[in-house]
Amino acid sequence: MEAKRRLRKSDRKDIHNDLRDVHHPGSAGLKRYARMSLRQKSEALKAETAHTYALATARHVRMSPQKVRLVVDLIRGKKLEEARAILKYTPHRASEIVAKVLESAAANGMNDDRKNMIEDQIFVKAAYVDEGPAIKRMLPRARGSANMIKKRTSHITIIVGEKNG
Question: Disordered: where is this region (predicted)?
């Protein structure tokens, strides 16, 4: 019989991060995991998540995360075809980049032999934008002083899954 070992704090943090990344708040997956203990969650994640989602990221995109989040919020939870249509007709500069990441995530799901997702059943499981490193520039001001300009960058992550039925 396997002795019960308390999970280290770093292990617990990893499991929580995996859950946060894979299932955005309010999804059925997160509710399913809510009643499990931390050890059960880790076992369930090891067993299923490698084959139930596909993700794509775009890093160091030269656009403010605040502006990209406006576009990403429009497609979260939508079916693939609906998300494509929304991005096609959204008049934001960020919609082109988000569309590329979405297409890449969908292709990752359909072309991977282990996942074999069907295009009609793919939906946006989670989508989030993190802040990347800011490019710092100086702007000369009066009397020899200077102001700093931060040109912000973004890391865009889109996770797609397959709806059953």
Answer: 1-26
